[in-house]
Design goal:
667 residues; alpha/beta; Gyrase A, domain 2; Rossmann fold; five-stranded antiparallel β-sheet; 22 helices
Amino acid sequence: MPGDSGAGAGSVRGYLLHRAKPHLPPWLAVGATGLAGALGNWRWGDSAAAGVGLTLASVALTGATWWAGKSTSQQRRLHSAITVAAGSAWITAACLAGPTAGPLDDLYLMGGPVVALSWNVRMILRHNADPSGENSDKGLLEKVGLARAQIREARVEPNRVTAPVALAPGEQTNDDVSKALGRIASALDLPTSAVRYHPEPDSNRRGDLVIVPEDMLAEVVEWEGPSNLGGSIAEPLVIGRYDDGAPLVVWLPGDPDAGRNSTHVLVAGGTGSGKGDTALNLLTEVLSRRDVIVWFSDPKAFQDFAPLRPGLDWAAEGGTQTEVMVAAVQEVIPARTRWLGEHGYRQWVPQAAQQQTSAEHTCRADGRACGCAGMPFLVTWFEEAANTLRALGDDAFTGIAQEARSAGISLIVSLQRPSYDQMSTSTRASLPSVIALGCDPRDEGFCLPDEVLAAGAHPGAWGNRRPGYCYVVSPGIAEDRYPSPGRTRRFTHRAVPVMELLATWAQRNGATADPVTAGAAAGVAGTAYTGRTTPDAPQQPARLRAVSEEDDMQHGGPLVDPEDAHIDPEADLPDALDGDDAPIFAPEPGHKPSPEEARELFARALQEFEENGQMIVGPKDFMDWCDRHNLSRPWVSARLKEAALDGRLEPTNTTGRWRIVPTLTAA
């Protein structure tokens, strides 16, 4: 037992000594100061020169202490300088007059413990929680060059800390914090994307420092299905999640009640950045809504989107088909805008997609409900748009981007590098929303606004090493979310059956093109636009469906043309005459058709192009035709110009390319 008591006493003494060690240096310094004064008096008590030297040394030591404390806090700098000045002054006086002369001994006995205790108190406070953030948060800001800044009470959320920052008036600005974000991330041992700064819009020295300590995006989340099957396109589209776990959403139509404008979207990212999966996340969300139709162009022949193709209202594979689609979009904009205006809609809202049974939204002059068919929202999507821009010019989408939002149309452009040599500045400025995935650091300015980059967004840091990581800037999203990274969900082979089911659902339950949109599209594209069909209905051109619907409504009157009324349907057909089985205008080797025959052949060629759905033609499309009929390309070019004057063709944005005007429209 006595041994145990001794061991316990030793443990207590050891604990107390361990706790006291950090606080001993100030007391040792006080003792060393008294010893230095006594020894100095024994050595230099009668030396006038030593008095001068000691005085100069005291002043120099105090100045050096003040200079060395420049990188520390103002309080620590002042405390250190006062301590050194007091100690060196006492040593100088003790060396010259003696440590017990006059009040020197009393000053030593009272001042020494006070100075030592002041440092002990400072150490204790530094190791305890400081509500004001003076020692923890202040120390962090000192390390990154923002020593005069103050951090107010932080707001702690799951995996997110928001700390209001007030900078020194007249000395620091919000730009200083933006430039220090990398150093703050280094001090906290976090990636650069985990630290953001959101300046207050009405102040240049206040803002919120946001820190996300854990990257919740490291875990891959697979797509399992749409978030809101059968909902409205006006409701948020969930395409992933943010790094703090919050859902990553975008809106396409506007909302007058919420003050949100309709938007177009730019999807930008380098090779391997996950742009395909991001597009699939957005497209599956769009197709799962009940009041929207999608026109989709993909020069890669729907390599990634094949399971969803049956759910599209119009699918084009690039080249001439995309040229026709662009021309059709340009044509439907004024038609849809006119319909919305006639029915009292300043912008597209979900009510516009329903049958117009309200007197508030009627096109009738008498104010009664018109009963017109509703107009679904239209999404026009151009995948791998760099291909289209090279073919049609960098301003191919400028008019659409500037005018389509008021027509209930959203333009989505996807490409790897939205630089100014690929897309005109007018088009880029008219795309308010952007989904920026990993890219080359030099391309960051093409993807995101400068203020978002200044707040900490850095897609160039990902490159193609983190597929699906992205920043989203879009109306409806809080601006402090713009520099917050998110990640879209991944599509694997397990997603294919679900996508096929979604496409079937869209065929059976999704919206179909309204008569105004379908009519305007068919007036430009002819048989190239068929509209989405149901699994049970054969596909036919939209304009032919419209004609058949009109025929179905005609229940009375003769069923034969008046000019054929004299023909007896029971009479035998006349015998065949010589030459009846010969092909019309059949070319013979070396035979050159007459001008009348050549023009008839040219008209038939245009008709064949139209029936095949090739609505954009040029002299190069007639090369084989010219060889068969012994006609030259200059002759074809002249006939194309004549057909344009006759209204059969219309010029396109590309020199030497003409758009065929469908025969029904021309008539």
